[in-house]
Design brief:
About 60% of the residues lie in helices and about 15% in strands. The protein is of the alpha+beta class.
């Protein structure tokens, strides 16, 4: 009797001992991927991020594994040495990513390591069963750079603004749409890129992917559930923007801002309600054991009818569970004994490998090639030999632009001509990390009610070398007034006028690291209306004056360091 009473606690102690190596392994793995964990947390919690849903992905993965727990308990365990190449590849990517400071490669390495470790510890059959949950972790990783996201999100931004304006007009709240601005009688709403609907689309795609995986039913119906999230995201986001407009029109702009901050919960609730209803409409079987089929017809009226109905429902559910277990037993056999001990034995080599990798990471040296960014003081207030003088002070960056672009350098100022002409020009230079700092002027100006019509690339010869700019005409949508503008990107020292080429360079830098040379966007804008040749010549003269001063410092950033060093030595002398 005493032995029988002591057996269960003894077995529990043994199980806990088998869990210890997994705890040690998890701690070492978190140490190895500390930089990735910090990056994920930053991207998930940033205010304008597209990955706020990422914090829920590990919970979805845990639910997926828990849902398949009975099948996993019955799968045969084995060792597959094919996991070792994946593990060594993942560790190689860790060392490369830390040296190049590329967090995306580090994140990809993490998932590769999980797949390789599962192969080594549990074998191919268990790995195949867990492959989708492990790959689903990619939905929590910021894979695509913000600039490419903005490029893709722009059409959704316009569509969401159109839908919201249509809904407001249907609701008898007159609304004029100019680009992505909604003008109501006493409230104006600007649909920015973070509110474009792409954030909603990314979140709902991830959510519906998990929902479709957890639903029991034919594969065709589960694919329909997943694909329905794309139009659902646009529709729900249009309704959300319309509701923000209603709150702003009826109450105040402050009330609309407060409602905007919490409106994301409306999207999630509406998304879940729609997916649940759609799964019932498609006649899927169940969701996490919850039946989606119509309940059985009620029994004939009688005094004991409710009790019999409840009892019969419980009996049906119990019979369904028993039938599912019997089906698994017939297909895979009973649960495998000693599975935890088998897995614990295979985890010890992984502990040794990760421990060595954690030590090796300490010896990785990060390149220290740093370049000084262009600052406001590096560009004189008088340029072109006195032909152009700064009018007033620099315009500071607004909080919303800083949050979206996060530039390291920002120069926004106006110059006026001191000669016989009275032209005034606006100069904008933004610089920093090429993954975030750039925006497409076509999108930015459309949000302000302008359409940009590209004319072509113009090369201007200057004492500091040629500068090739994209020449474009800015047209006010409402009044059709036109003005001239030219712009150029300088990425990794190379001038380009195409946002697509910038996207490609950014993706390469995201995957394989950058040389840390500052990248810039320069925009030159004629402040007066008109596109006649004389105004074009004035704008080109202004660009020549600016590039003569800024060109060497932008194309050869080491000159800024040399200038600062020479000034310091002069002061010390």
């Amino acid at each position: 009797m005493d032995i029988a009473n002591q057996a269960p606690p003894l077995r529990r102690k043994i199980d806990i001992l088998y869990l210890l190596p997994f705890i040690v392994f998890a701690g070492l793995l978190a140490t190895l991927y500390t930089n990735a964990l910090h990056w994920w947390y930053f991207e998930w919690t940033a205010q304008s991020t597209y990955y706020q849903h990422g914090v829920f992905i590990p919970f979805f993965v845990a639910i997926m594994i828990w849902r398949d727990r009975e099948r996993l308990r019955r799968l045969p365990l084995s060792r597959s040495w094919w996991g070792l190449p994946l593990i060594f590849l993942a560790i190689g990517l860790v060392l490369f990513a830390i040296r190049a400071e590329v967090t995306l490669t580090l994140s990809i390495s993490f998932i590769l390591f999980l797949i390789g470790a599962t192969l080594l510890v549990a074998g191919p059959k268990v790995t195949r069963a867990l492959l989708f949950p492990m790959l689903f972790l990619f939905t929590m990783i910021p894979i695509v750079p913000n600039m490419i996201i903005n490029y893709v999100a722009f059409p959704i931004q316009v569509l969401s603004a159109k839908l919201a304006a249509t809904l407001l007009n249907i609701a008898h709240f007159p609304t004029d749409r100019i680009g992505v601005e909604l003008h109501m009688e006493s409230y104006t709403l600007n649909v920015e890129l973070p509110c474009s609907g792409f954030k909603t689309l990314v979140g709902l795609l991830s959510f519906s992917g998990a929902f479709a995986y957890l639903v029991e039913g034919p594969v065709r119906k589960r694919w329909i559930l997943f694909l329905s999230s794309a139009p659902l995201a646009v529709l729900v986001n249009g309704v959300r923007i319309a509701l923000i407009g209603l709150v702003g029109e009826i109450f105040s702009a402050d009330a609309a801002h407060s409602f905007h901050d919490y409106s994301g919960f409306i999207v999630l609730i509406c998304g879940f309600m729609f997916l649940f209803w759609f799964a019932k409409t498609l006649k899927c079987d169940s969701f996490l054991g919850m039946s989606l089929a119509d309940p059985p017809p009620p029994p004939p009226p009688g005094p004991d009818a409710p009790a019999e109905n409840a009892a019969s429902r419980r009996e049906i559910e119990q019979a369904a569970r028993k039938q599912a277990i019997q089906k698994l037993n017939a297909e895979l056999g009973p649960p495998r004994p000693g599975a935890l001990r088998h897995a614990a034995t295979g985890i010890y080599p992984l502990i040794a490998i990760v421990a060595i990798a954690c030590v090796a990471v300490r010896f990785v040296k990060v390149p220290t090639a740093e370049y000084k960014m262009l600052e406001s003081a590096d560009l004189p207030a008088t340029i072109g030999g006195g032909a152009w003088k700064q009018l007033g002070g620099d315009v500071p960056i607004d909080p919303q632009t800083r949050e979206t672009l996060n530039p390291t350098a920002w120069i926004d100022r106006t110059y006026f001509a001191t000669g016989p002409v009275s032209a005034s020009m606006n100069l904008l230079i933004s610089g920093g990390n090429s993954r975030r700092v750039f925006h497409d002027p076509h999108e930015c100006f459309l949000g302000s009610g302008f359409l940009l019509h590209d004319v072509g690339v113009t090369t201007i010869q200057t004492p500091s070398g040629p500068i090739a700019v994209q020449e474009t005409v800015a047209e006010v949508v409402k009044t059709h007034e036109k003005s001239l503008m030219m712009f150029v990107y300088v990425v990794e020292g190379e001038q380009t006028q195409s946002a697509l080429r910038v996207h490609a360079k950014m993706m390469w830098g995201t995957l394989f690291g950058e040389s840390r040379r500052p990248s810039y966007f320069l925009r030159f804008r004629q402040m007066g209306n008109g596109t006649e040749p004389a105004k074009r010549e004035e704008l080109m003269d202004f660009i020549k004056a600016v590039w003569t001063e800024a060109g060497p410092k932008i194309s050869h950033p080491q000159m800024l360091q040399r200038t600062a060093r020479d000034a310091r030595m002069k002061d010390e002398g």
